């Protein structure tokens, strides 16, 4: 998709799962390669995509997004649900490039807006969102759909 200084941004495939699992584990999100492969394929088959940034070896970064129709918007809305850049690859513009590639993918899917779901309101991520053109759009609440025992 995009290449800059030896860095390639492209759609992830099931073959990237071992490297993605390694990247996720670095961030404390343990998942077996086969589980990651199934999740990547599910997003690829549905209304979404997973993009990776890769120089050599395992991916340096990953971004996941999906799009959905909204009663309040004329065009679908794309939502970034996951963004991670490896610890050793941060502060090099990889996150910004992933957001740019995600924006292009969303436009190609006919979306009119891109939103970022922030799991935690940390200052670093807020600053990143503001620096990449996002504006705060209100609070978000989540609820588990599983029974709490």
From TrEMBL:
UniProt cross-references to Gene3D superfamilies, sorted A to Z: 3.40.630.30
Database matches in InterPro entries: Acyl_CoA_acyltransferase, Bact_Acetyltransf, GNAT_dom
N-acetyltransferase domain location: 7-149
Keyword Membrane among UniProt keywords: no
GO molecular function: acyltransferase activity, transferring groups other than amino-acyl groups
Keywords of this entry: Acyltransferase, Transferase
Name of the protein: GNAT family N-acetyltransferase
Originating species: Falsiroseomonas algicola
